[in-house]
Amino acid sequence: MEKKEIIKRYLYRFLLFFLFGITVIISGTEHSYADAQVIRVGFTQDGQMIRQTEDAYTGYGVEYLDMIADYTGWQYEYVMIPEEDRLKALEDGVIDLLCDVSKDETGTGHLLFSEERSSLYYGLLCAKKDDTSVFFDDYEAMNGKRIALNSSRSMESMLMDFSVDHQINYTPVYYPTFLSMKEALDQGEVDLMLASNQRNLTDYKYVAKVGVKNQFFAVSQKREDLKEQLDYALRQITVRQPFMTGKLYEENYGRPSKVLTGVTREEYEFLHSGIKVRVVCDAGSYPLGYIDEETGEYCGIYADVLKLLEEKSGLEFELLPIKNYGESGEMLRDGKADMTAGMYINDALAKEYGITYSDSYMTIDYAMIGRRDTRLNAASRIAVPQNYIGIQVLAGEIYPESEVISAKDVTESLKMVQHKEADSTLINSVFLQTAYNLNDYDTLMILPMNEVSVPIRCAIGGENAEVLKQIINRAINTIPSENFERCITENVINISYQPSLKSLFKQYFPYIIGIILLIGSIFVALLLIRERHYKHLAMTDSLTGLWNGIKFRKEAEQLLQHNPKKEYQLISLDIEHFKYVNSDLGEAAADGILKMIGKRLCEVFGSNALYGREMADMFWILTEKREDLEKLLHKIAEPVMFENNGVEQMYKPLFKFGICMFKEYDLAFGDYIDMAIMARKAIKGDPAKVIEYYDDEMAEMTSNERRIEKRMDEALKNGEFVVYYQPKYQLRSETISGAEALVRWRDPEKGLVSPGIFIPIFERDGFIIQLDFFVYEEVLKDMVKWQNEGRRPIIVSMNVSRAHIGTADFLQKLTELVDSYGVPRNRLELELTETVLGGKRQDILSFIVSCKRAGFQISIDDFGSGYSSLNLLKELPVDVLKIDREFLNETEESEKSSIIVKQVVEMAAKINIETLCEGVETRGQADFLKQIGCDMAQGFLYSRPVPREEFEGLLEA
C-alpha cells in the first residue's frame, strides 16, 4: 500500500471518529428534567459509600442515587460533613439526605428513614498488619483485648452478640470518629478496632467478621416530601431492577463471603515458612502458556496470572513448565508439584489425583471449529488438544454420542479437521484472537453453535493443599477482575506499525485544520438543533408523542393539588402477550400498533384527561370521574388497524385495565399508582376479565404484604419461625422412616401465619434464601440431638426454593453447614417441586446432579402436577417420587386415577426409585397404596405436621 493511501485512510478515520463522537454527545439518551430538584447529599471524608476524587464523585452511594434520580428527576450536590456532625447537619437542614444511617445509631430520633434499606454493612474487627498476636477467627487470642468503638454505638450490639457466641471478654473504648479510632489503634491505645467494611481499611488486617446490619437513607423529620419521593423510587427499583442493588454492592465492595476474610494463624505460618510453591505450568498452549524462544522464559496468560497471585498472596512460586500438560495431575499426586497454573474443574480428575480446586479467576470460551461443509451429527468426531485438561471430558459430556479424539496440540487439531480426520475441534477463544488464528486454514470456520464457557481454576494437591487453597482463594477474590482480564488482552493484541501521528499532522496541517473547521461548524449547528428539542424530548415519549412516565406523574400531581376535592379515576393499562407481536410481526409493526393506541387514547377521552406511556406497552390515563368509563375502555380495546411492510393489517389487543378511584387527594400520588398497578395485575392471565378496580380486599392484601416484609427480619431474629415435622411412614411396617421439615411462623399478634401467605412473599423478595438456611440449621441441630439420645437414624427432607437454583454458592454453603454438624449427607433429602423444575433444563439438571454427587438424597414433590414428569424420570438422578395428593383424592372415585397411580408406582420401582404418596387421609387410601406396592405414605391419617417435641413422642411410640 502506498504512503499516500495510508495518509488518506488515517484522515478518513479521524473524520469519522470525530463525527461519531459529536453525534453521541448531541443525541445522548440522558434525561433532562425541567426545574430539577437539587438534593444536598452529605458524606464523610473516610466513608467508602461516596468517595470524592479530583473531578468526580464515585462509589456505591453515587451509583444508587443515580438510579433513584431516574424516577425522581433529582440532581445532587455532595457536601462533605465531619463524621460527628452529620446527623445534626441533617436535622438542621444543612444537608437534605444521608445514605448510610443505622436505625440504632445514637441521635436518629428526629430523622425519617426509607422503607427499603440502602445497603448492608459488615462489622469487622481489625488489627494492625504487623500484629502477630491475633489472626483471623483466632477467638482465644481476642480474649481480654481493648477494642475501639464509635461513640454512636451503632455496631456495639453486634459485638456483644459476637462476644457471647465466642466467649470473648473485652474492654470497650469509645471514640467520636473513625479517624480517632485509627489513631488509637496505630498508637497502641487499643488492641483492636470495630469498623464497617464500607470504610477504607487497607492499612489493617481483618481478624473477625462480627456481624451484619442494615443501613437506610435518612432525611429530616421536616422533609416528608423527600421521603415520599425516595420511597416511590426505591419501590420502582425493587420491582423493575430487583437484582441491581446487589450487583452494585458486589461491584463496589466485592462478595462479603469471599472478600471479608483475613489471614489465619496456619496461613501466616505457611507464608513465613520459606516454602516455595511448585507450580506446574502449561508450556504448549499459546497464548495461555509457552516458552519464549529468545529468552527461554515462561510467558503467556498463565504466567501473568501467576505474577498477580504471587504479588497479592505473598507466596513464592517455582515454575515448572511442561509441554504435555496432561501429566500435571500425576505430578500433583506424586508430590512433584503443589499447584497448577490453570485447569478446568473435573470431579473425576480430582478423585483420581487427590486434588482440590481454587475459586475461578477467569472464564475462557471454547468455540467449535469445523470445515465449511461440516454437518455435525451424533457420530461426529471431535479433536481436542491433549493439553486441554478436562475439556476432553467436558466434550464427552456435552456431546455424549460423539467420539472425542486426542490431538498433540491446537495446530494438529486444526489440521485433523482440515484433512477430514476429525469433523470438528474445540479451540479456546484467546487463541482465535491472536495472530495465529484461522487465517492459515481457509477451509475452516467457527461453527454456528453455542460457545462453551469454562471457568479456569488452580488445581492444588499435597499435604498443604487446604491452607494453600485458602491463601490462593483470598488472593483471587481480592484482585480486581479487570486485572485478570488484562492478562488476556495483553497476550492476544497484535501490535503492528502505523505511521506517526506527529508526522501526519506536520505534513497535512492545512487539511486537518479544514476538517476541524468543518466539524466545528457541524457541532454548532447540531447544538442549536439539540437545544430546540431538548425540553420536548425530556418530557415526551418519542414513539407515541404522549408524556413519558416522569412528566405524567408531575402533571398529574399538579392537577390533583389544584383540585384536591374532585373525584378522579387513575387507569393503568397494558396489553397481554404483547412481546409476541415483536417476535411474530417485527419491531416496526409493534411500534405502529403502540402509536395507534396512543392516538386512540386521546381520541376516546379527549382533552379532559392526562395520558402517559410508562414503557413498552404500559400506559396511564387520569380523568375526572366518568359514569361511562367502562364503555370508553372497551372502545380503546377494539381492534387496531396498522401498516406492516406496506400492507394494512388488523391486531386485536388483549387489554388489562386496573382502575384506582379516589374522592380526595389525601395520599402520595405514587400510592395511587401502586393501587392501579395492583388492580391490573390481579387479572393478569385471566382471559375472562378485562377491567378490575382497586378495592378494600386488595388494600388489606397490600397492607398484610408490607407488614410481613417489614417484620420478616425481626421475626427471624426473635425466633418466631419454628420447624415442624410431618412423619413419613413405611407402608409395609407402618413405622416412621423419615420426616419432612416444614417452617411455621408464630406471629405474637396474628398467631400462626399460613405458609401459603408468607412463602410466596419471601420467594419474591429473596428472604426465602435466609429462611431456608435457618430451617436447614435447625434440622441439623435436631438430628444431632436425636443421635446423641441414641434414637434410630431417619432421613429428613428439606425443601429447596427456586431461588437457590441460580445461586452459585448454595451447594458449597449447604455442605459446609452439614459437615460442621457431623450429620451424614445421605440422611438429608433435598425436596424440589415440579414447578421449581420448570426453569432452564440444563441449569436444573446440573444443579440436581451436583447435589447428588455431594451425597444428598433427591426427591421430587407434587409429581404429576406440573413439568414434564416422564422427562424427569428419564434424566434426573432422583431417589424418591412424591405423588401429588390430587391423584390420591380421586382414586376412591375414579378408576383412571387408580390406574395412573398404580402405573407410576410400578414404573418407579422398575427404575429403582422409591415412591411416597402425600395427603393420605383414609384407611382405604392407605390399603390401596399398600396393595399396589407404594413404599411410603404421608398425611393426616398418620399425623399432621407437629413441633419437634411431639414428633419425638411419635418416634418413641
From TrEMBL:
Database matches in InterPro entries: Cyclic-di-GMP_PDE-like, EAL_dom, EAL_sf, GGDEF_dom, Nucleotide_cyclase, Rev_trsase/Diguanyl_cyclase, Solute-binding_3/MltF_N
Lineage: Bacteria, Bacillati, Bacillota, Clostridia, Lachnospirales
Pfam family, one: EAL
Protein's UniProt name: EAL domain-containing protein
Keywords associated with the record: Membrane, Transmembrane, Transmembrane helix
Gene3D superfamilies: 3.30.70.270, EAL domain, Periplasmic binding protein-like II
Listed transmembrane segments: 12-29, 508-529
Molecular function as annotated in GO: cyclic-guanylate-specific phosphodiesterase activity
